[in-house]
Amino acid sequence: MTRLQLPDGVGVTALMAAYARAQELRRDNPLFEDEAAALFMADALGISTRDGESLPRLGPARDDGTSDLWNSLAGSFVARTPFYDTYLTERIAAGCRQVVQLGAGLDGRAFRLPLGPDVAMYEIDTPVVLDFKAGVLARHGVESLVKRVPVGVDLRDDWVGALEAAGFDVGQPTAWMAEGLFMYFTAEEADGLMAAVTAASAPGSTVAGEYLSRRSRLGDVAASDADEQALIELSVAADQGGPGSAPDIWLAGHGWRGAYHQLVDELAAIGRPVPPLWRVDRDDPLRVWLFTGALGADAVGTDALGADVLGVDALGAGGGGDSGTG
């Protein structure tokens, strides 16, 4: 297989997430089957990702289980995937027919989740990312299971205008999703993005996302070689801190009622070990907060934002918290 030349601007995070999902596909009992991720990696690496051999290394990503850094990153990419899958499937089951992915990257949900052909899924990312994605999918003849609408625009530009021009209906409830996004925003930028989401949301809209409890640090996980050290330095430099407060508080400031829990809860729920970066039994641990929210207290006809509203039964009723995990 000829290796596909990756264009500048296809972010390392998108490639790393696809690598982790391609790894998951090769497990005996995968949590999910992301065939699109396997295709992205096959074209990026120039190999078949479905044979019995280990995936070749791609930067810090490795398929041999020896790296604390990669085990931690892959663990987070994999564990958060069912969280968002459940969120979307339950929102569609509740009648929502409009999904917006903010910073969609190489996500493959439009090709693997049977949400229905009447569901419009808007994938927002930079044109270069979406062009690369489209090229791989076209080469392999992959068709979406929903009405997939790529929207090539930077989230620092007028993305709402581009979204509306692509057919988005501000009068209809929306299931918003911001996977792996907010850590790259300052608190001011995160507020600006959430304000724009709120302004474009009809009653009954919901949102799901995640961010870190604090900014990452160089000493949070050890590097085993220069490639890993380079990624750690890049990630720490790119980490802008996100909203800066707990998700339920932050969402409330924008008129949303929210709840949250930790990545370690997701890992426990799927029976996976907690890798070194996310261990909570140390001083000032680095936590990943997974959150969901609904617009307005009465927007979705419930008093307690339970699983029927937000699609995450681990949240429990009525607000935020760390689910008692240290």
Explain how this protein is built.
By secondary structure, the protein is an alpha/beta fold. The protein has helices at residues 12-25, 35-45, 68-93, 109-112, 127-139, 159-165, 187-199, 226-238, 247-252, 263-270, 307-310; strands at residues 98-102, 120-125, 147-152, 175-178, 206-212, 256-262, 288-295. Strand 2 (120-125), helix 5 and strand 3 (147-152) form a beta-alpha-beta unit. The model is unreliable at 1-7 and 297-326 (pLDDT under 50).
Helix and strand topology:
Elements: H1 12-25, H2 35-45, H3 68-93, E1 98-102, H4 109-112, E2 120-125, H5 127-139, E3 147-152, H6 159-165, E4 175-178, H7 187-199, E5 206-212, H8 226-238, H9 247-252, E6 256-262, H10 263-270, E7 288-295, H11 307-310
Parallel strand pairs: 1-2, 1-4, 2-3, 4-5
Antiparallel strand pairs: 5-7, 6-7
